[in-house]
Amino acid sequence: MLTAPYTIVGAGPVGTLMALMLADRGHRVRLFERRADPRTARPERGRSINLALAARGVLALKQAGLMSRVAPQMITMPGRMLHDEQGALQFLRYGQHAREAIYAISRERLNCLLIDAAAERPHIELVFQTRCVDMDPDAATLQLRDERHGSVRHEPFGILLAADGAGSAVRSALLARRLSSAREQPLEHDYKELSIPAVTGGAAGGDFVFEPHALHIWPRGGYMLIALPNTDRSFTATLFLPRQGDPGFDRLEAAGAVQDFFRHQFPDACAAIPDLAQQFALHPQGRLGTLYCERWQAAGRVLLLGDAAHAIVPFHGQGLNCGFEDCRALDGLLASRRDASVALAEFERERRPDTDAIAAMALENYLEMRDTVRSPLFAQRKALAAELERHFPGRFIPRYSMVMFHPEIPYAEARRRGAQQAQILDALTAQFGFASPDAPALRQAQRLLDDAGL
Predict the structure, then answer these.
(1) Residue 2: pLDDT over 50
(2) Residue 44 confidence (pLDDT) above 90
């Protein structure tokens, strides 16, 4: 058998996009996936954490020529809609320009669209229901199990890219051989998904129960509920709550407790989910955490990619976007280097500062989403930051905007600049308050930007 130059384990969005980019450059790719073909299999429920595509992910899809397929499935969200305990609403725009929006999309629909595109490429061989059991980087062989029949076989590989998620079997093989080490920093909060159906009647047989062009957040300090719109006019809601405590998942084991909790904390969401107790009982409770992996590549021929290398919590909406950016970065290195092993090593060296930065920012953003965003000071500070961005374009860009809307700015640079800008906001508000900046305040802002090298 002729060994395919590239083998990819994991046909989720990241693995499939990577296969498409490689195939577009003329490489042959074998793509193994432990699950059945998602285009024909019943989708998994309760574990998707609906996706929010942002500029980094969109740029990767454009580079692969896939936006014409994906765009019809995207719903524009230019801001957050906050729901208080009485159901009152407040809309906060993410940025000041029309392009500064994120896009809700179904994870399973996106995956199917990418697999459709891969199936059309003669250079890509898709192999479903085939689980990676082990991997030997020195022998360049995979041990695979057919999930339908249980048979085990060995397959050679040339270059192996592991995009098999946070529970990566390839990473486990590296750890077992002491070629890497990893630790997970678990979050003390779990999550549970719930479906908010469309309102019956109206156009096309139903309508959205909430404003569709917003990411809905019910911030409650120590926990929160969020909801993202779907093209069938439903919403996918996710409850993030401590595993134990009051409130905590351990206190919501009885149907009555679930109803009471939602009725008091999320009254409008509670009214919109007629089968709340049933869904809560049936849908799995998921764990969250950040993965820190010491080494992503081995033997010059194996590389971990996406969540397999650097899984993060979902609170900045960057897990998929970061994985897609991995694909762009690796594709560029492989195209410009004659030796693939050099490209793999360079990829890890160049990407690690950025993936470390977004992991930290994702954790920080959880506090903002569930708590800080409720404060009037948050809105005032955000308004002042927007004024500075208008007066000093390109020099002052809010950190959230750098992460979500400026793919040309690396994550690590966004975090560094964000910290400097926070100090500038602190200094300005201490001296001038939160009023719209006048001439003296703008002169001081310019001095502070100059001093910071921004």
Answers:
(1) no
(2) no
